[in-house]
Amino acid sequence: MTEKLLEVRNLSKIFAPRFRINPLKKDSSVRAVDNVSFDIDRGETLALVGESGCGKSTTGRLVLRLLDASEGQVTFDGQNVNALSSSELRKLRSQMQIVFQDPFGSLSPRRTVEQIIAEPMAAFGITRRAEQRERITTLLQQVGLSPDDMRKYPRQFSGGQRQRIGIARAIALGPSFVVADEPVSALDVSVQAQIVNLMQDIQKQHRMAYLFISHDLAIVRHIADRVAVMYLGRIIEIGPKATVFSAPQHPYTQALLSAAPAIDPKKRARRIVLTGDVPSPSAIPSGCSFRTRCPLAQPICAQEQPPLKTVAAGQLTACHFAEPHPIKIQSSPTPLTTA
Fold first, then answer.
1. Are 12 and 68 within 8 A, CB to CB?
2. Can you give the C-alpha Rg of the chain in angstroms?
3. Residue-wise pLDDT tens digits, 85-96
4. Consecutive H or E run containing 98
5. In this model, does residue 339 exceed pLDDT 50?
6. Using 50, 70 and 90 to split pLDDT, how confident is the model at 334?
7. CB proximity list for 24: less than 8 A, separation 6 or greater
């Protein structure tokens, strides 16, 4: 039986320019996230995918309220995150954590591993040195590092080892939800597999939920339960992983999946090449934001923004021409290996 942990409703973020060079020029505000809604169950992984600059990372920060939303609501474990005071939000931080993309910039070079992991513990009342050390020892072993590493500095580790330290810091307080913001994009392929497998092991042990932000479809196919596809700040398709990968209904999702490399030449999809450039987030086209690059575009696409509509069990697509379809699920992908 599923248990809903996170509910996001109509979430939007508008970045206004700090100053306007030409006062006669039209408003150049950037709508980075536009009316985004989704749920995540306890123990589930929802992958958020799309091109660079589509609003994935901003969405993750809005969910954690590292950024304040312009519109919409985030409900975590029954609490309205947007309505919490600073002190109330601070208490919730132990249950909502983040793993950052850059394993080199996210750790202080002046602190030892022990100090880095102990910081959230001290912030939430675990101040006894012996208790901290005991927990840090367990955490380091859990992420595949040695307890002796706690006296070292980040510069003494590889990128993959630094990301393991970042994961240890994120789970130090036993959170139930983690935003993983492209946690393996800066790492070698073999190390990516190690980190992803580690995150899955930790998830199974603690029934942790992930919002996994990535542009790597091979990684997403391995780790996700459901997939949400973003384009210019909007979710244009969302559904179970197997359904989205086997029967994508939005033209953008189809193009995105066709661009993913395949080892077996017989299994390579016909490449769908999109024409034109991605519009500026400060000048999003009317109606369907994808219409300027869409091979199916018709006059209605410029006039009406298509809502997300159900096309299969659990699969929703924002396209005027998407139709309900029978689900044809392909065989499961091979597991990631470290070889």
1. no
2. 21
3. 999 999 999 999
4. strand 96-99
5. no
6. very low
7. none
**Given this model, what pLDDT does residue 324 score?**
84
Token representation of residue 251: 């033209």
Give the span between the Cα atoms of 290 and 273, in whole angstroms.
Answer: 14
- Residue 76 makes CB contacts below 8 A (sequence gap 6+) with 5, 6, 7, 92, 95, 96, 177
**Residue (of 161, 169, 56, 77) closest to 121 by Cα position:** 169
- Give Cα 79 to chain centroid, integer Å: 21
CA separation, residue 190 to residues 47, 160, 168, 263 (Å): 21, 10, 20, 16
Take residue 298 and report the two structure tokens written for it.
């018709």
What residue segments make up the domains of the chain, in order of their start? 4-317
Task: Specify the pLDDT at position 187.
Answer: 85
Q: Is the pTM of this model over 0.85?
A: yes
pLDDT score at 19: 63
CATH 3.40.190.10 correct for 4-317? no
Q: 40: which 2 tokens? A: 């995540």
